[in-house]
Design a protein that fits this description.
Length: 286
């Protein structure tokens, strides 16, 4: 039975790794070999032309990386702090408005204010258009993550807080010296989700960013993708006076996927231990 379970997970792991390896292989293949031989796990003809095209203006790409890294780092740290603070408040049984606040937080999970009011609020009332906060504040707090964090904090024994209070600890000291250190698995798990959402976001940039110096990575790659689709479409081939027959459109798309997802794939293994612990917390009763 043990060998069967191990074999199952090996096959499952290969099923997850195969598409990633295929994307890397396509990004390193020449356009002609892709047209002749299709998608191969091992490139028949290796070509770095796709990466050469993307890195033709490296300053813009590197600046987009800087913007995305800054937004992800600031948004993740601030989002974790606010999420943990709100969840800690909701987990306290002596909080008088606990039920009301929980319902108030759950409502945005069920109903949305709509895109137009959201755009007007951010651009007209908050005046955040063409600023980094426009990429950070809308995703700063998620009701779903608050409820996950609350479920973890509910498992912490209340006697521990009572004992700390008897020793003279206040609420902020409880939060900083007891809650945060004990919540490392949950914080790491939620932090990964928050960082992934910030890193992969291009929608907020599309709505609120016109300044080229504030364009995040995903939005830049989205614009490059649209330009490639425009130049290689059948309708526009007759009006674009450039020979696009040798343009590596297929490999360039995959190269952009590698550049977009690659950094987060290297970050994930360092948090994998905490991620697994956070997912299994509370699943076994003492």
């Amino acid at each position: 039975m043990k060998h069967a379970v191990n074999a199952f997970f090996i096959v499952l792991s290969l099923a997850f790794v195969f598409p990633l390896a295929l994307i890397v292989s396509i990004s390193l293949s020449s356009e002609q070999s892709l047209l002749n031989d299709g998608y191969l796990l091992i490139p028949r003809e290796i070509s770095f032309q796709a990466y050469h095209i993307i890195f033709k203006q490296p300053q813009q790409l590197l600046h987009a990386y800087e913007v995305t890294i800054a937004v992800t780092a600031i948004g993740t740290v601030a989002g974790l702090l606010f999420t943990a603070m709100i969840a800690f408040t909701l987990s306290r049984k002596d909080y008088a408005f606990r039920k009301f606040t929980t319902v108030y937080i759950v409502i945005p999970m069920l109903f949305s204010g709509g895109l137009v009011p959201f755009y007007i609020m951010v651009s007209q009332y908050l005046h955040l258009k063409d600023t980094l906060p426009a990429l950070i504040l809308p995703g700063l707090i998620s009701p779903f993550y608050i409820l996950i964090m609350k479920g973890f904090l509910d498992k912490l024994p209340g006697e521990m807080f009572d004992s700390a209070k008897m020793d003279g600890a206040g609420e902020f000291r409880l939060f900083a010296t007891i809650v945060l250190p004990l919540s490392t698995p949950a914080l790491a798990t939620i932090g990964l989700f928050i960082s992934f959402s910030y890193w992969n976001d291009w929608w907020l940039g599309l709505l609120f960013i016109d300044n080229k110096d504030l364009v995040p990575l995903q939005l830049l790659l989205y614009r490059i993708m649209n330009s490639i689709n425009f130049m290689t479409s059948e309708i526009n081939k007759n009006i674009i006076f450039i020979d696009m027959s040798q343009f590596p459109s297929l490999s360039t798309r995959m190269a952009m996927a590698v550049l977009a997802a690659g950094p987060m794939m290297f970050v994930f293994p360092f948090f994998q231990r905490y991620f697994v612990s956070g997912l299994t917390v509370g699943s076994v009763k003492n």
